[in-house]
Amino acid sequence: MMALAPSSNGDNANRNKNNEKEEKDNALKMLSFNPLNTRQLHQRTSEENIYEQLYQLRQSRNSTRSKHSEGKSVVSIDAALNDRNHQPIHDSLGLQLPLIETHQQRPIPRYHISRKTSEPLGVLPLKRRRNPFNYSIPSTSDDAKQHLLKLAGHETIVKGTHSTFESLPSNTNDPSIRIRTYSREESNVYEPLHSSLRNTTNVQSNKSFHNRIQKRVPDRLTTNQHHFLGYNGKERAAILIQSYWRGFRTRCIYKLLKKRKRAVHIIASAWLTYSKLSKIRKQLNLIRQRQLDYFHIKQNELREKWSCTSSNRRTIVHIPSLGLSQCVRKNLNHLSLRENYQIGRLCELDDPNVNVIYVSPMSVNDEILQYYNKLINLRAMVEQGNNQPATSIPNNVNERFKIVVPESLHSFPKHNMCLATLLKYSPKALKQIKNLIQNQQAYLVSGTSHIDDLYIAEYLDIPIYGCEPEVSYLYSTKSGSKRIFKSSNVPMPFGEYDIYDLQHLLKSLAQLIIEHLDVQRWIFKIDDHFDGLGIAYCDIATYLPCYQKLVEEARKCTSNESNKLIQNDLYAKLLSELPEILDKHTIYVNKAQFNSWQGYLKVFLSQGGIIEAYPPSDSITSITICLSIEPNGQYSLLCSGDQLHAESQFSCWGLAFPQSSIDPKELNNYCLLIAEQCQQRHIYGYIDIDFITFIDGKTDKQNIWVTDLSIGYSEHLSLFHVMKYITTGQFNSVTHSFIVKTKQPKQRLRNWQNGAPEYIITEKNCYAIWSSRLYHTNLSNIHYSIFFEICRSHGIGFDIRERQGSIFTLLESNHHEHIGMITISDTLQNTLTNFICNLNAMNQEITAKTEVEGRSNFMLAVNDIENIFGLTKDNDSNVSFNTTTS
């Protein structure tokens, strides 16, 4: 607002005031709009005339400024007109809004500033004040210049005005950006000049920019356009435009920074996770290496002191863990039950120097504990030879075994962990075991070795009676056992091992078929699967179209050269037919996991496997031999038996002990060769070797093949120790016979003689059939005491004097559907007969008691044993015929 000077003459003052007002309005009009006359613009186009008019405009503006109050900041509207040499003519014609420079400090006058004066440029308003249009001027700052284009791009123009835009540069901080504003009345005059001075390309780019940002017009700009018509309206519009542009740009920057921050957070989290995992892996590797070094140190100590340890008092910590691979364990049902098959280790107390600590994979109640106490105390009654309870228990046998149950048995229900891992996470159970073996010689025995056995052995500070877990896993696989058998020069089935490729599988199978045309069935075995669950087989000779042609050509060919030519011709055809035959006609043992060739092949090739020939015979007998390789290198044959198959012909359901299918000397020779190769590979502990024997149809000779090797304590050894403990018998590893000593009363010549009866100790051979895999779903509805009453009513029990009969092993405490049974008799036929009668009686009584037809494998076992029973009758008749003819 202009400061008015006082005048004594009122008329003169009013006249002067009106003149000043008109002069000021003219000056402002020249500032606000184009000062040039539009007619003259069309007539005079020379540059000199334009500069003259610009000079007059400068003079009129300076005269107007002089009338303002001193110290008041005024916006420079045509600052670009000063630079005539560097600025083009068409850029200097338009009146331009200022870019507020906040870094320039402007002095604020001390005297009062009227309302009509503008705020100093670059200074925020200190308070809200009312302008003629009741509008508060927005704040200004250094970033205000960045928001100038927003209002211009959206055509936020007040009513009665029209705006055009210059080409907008990419840099929003460029002070050369200008907005031209003029009234609609003069738009018709000014627009032709403006259009002639602007390039067509700039118009198109401005339109595209206008279309892009038109959607971002703030409502405040469109609804309050009349606020920019008053005094300093351009300054307020510039401040508002810059403030909105500053907010828009800040939001864009914030969104970008937020996106980058999120990305940085993800990258940093991933890197931290990776670095922590790497650090943990290194620590675990160091711990594993330390445990392995400790294992080797303790192993050497056990090897040096084994002769002293095996003859003195010692404690055996038995962990019936099945340390199988994770992919096998996750598909294995009732893992804890399978581990508890080894509960018969409690009866390994026939040596008075042995104490047993059994880590149970299942909870044990008082009923099961009481049963095993009675079973262990039964040996004293057997030694006395009467049914009277023993007056004294020798060697405190009840105190020589302990059962420890880990507290974390049910902590990981979905992980299917082995017992060694569960014991590792059970500090109370570990501490209890450590207290029990304190100041005693002890060693650890595991079922199937696992890497966590090293941790347990280190914590308990005891050695392991076995080999390194990695070595045990390597040579327990199907391919690993084939390496041992091949180096031992023992007879093996025709086949190929270490197969990891489909082409290798097909080519090997095609070559085997051509070389062994008498083999009708070929078997596929996955390397690390357990109990025959990874086996599949296919009857190639039955379904292969070119098989008969192969046989005919083989008969015609006599020389080796012609045979090779025929094989080469038929090899390609055989190779092309095999994939379809395998896809359609392959049968899987574990149908719950495998139901197609593609699914089986995926697991087979990922884990490795072997191809093996099925014996070309109708009568096949499988044999299991249990060995113990001691740390000092000596080995002993513990037991042998013929396998029983109830549910699958590739899964061992039980054993008929001892084996009577092969000459014992031949078996012992093969076992010796295999044991020597195991010692060279540092394999110690308990080992099971599987053989199959059959009669060759061409030569009528008995052949034997070595098929499998398992490293670790097995369920067969567990039941063997129960039988050995109860009968007080001994196994002869040379003749494969089990001898039991019994007391027979001596006959007297005179009955009237008084005195104690005299007994004669006699030796006799005993046979047994055992299995830990009897199950009946209705057993869970019957209490154990009722079950034993049923058995006694049918004469199922153990005769202490004769040391014959049946013994049970209890496995479960809650859902006792599974039990184990051992039947002992003096002949193999009587043993088979008694076992069948026991199964039939139990099946009938259990079904009658529960009145429900449950699921069981009793009758499947009966059928398999009846087949064996028929073979034994044929063998006995052949033997008697040969003796009579001779």
UniProtKB/TrEMBL annotation:
Chain positions covered by the region annotation Disordered: 1-26
Database matches in Pfam families: ATP-grasp_IQCH, IQ
Feature: compositional bias, Basic and acidic residues: 17-26
All residue ranges annotated as the IQCH-like ATP-grasp domain in the record: 469-733
Classification via PANTHER family: IQ DOMAIN-CONTAINING PROTEIN H (PTHR14465)
Name of protein: IQCH-like ATP-grasp domain-containing protein
Taxonomic source organism: Adineta steineri
Phylogenetic lineage: Eukaryota, Metazoa, Spiralia, Gnathifera, Rotifera
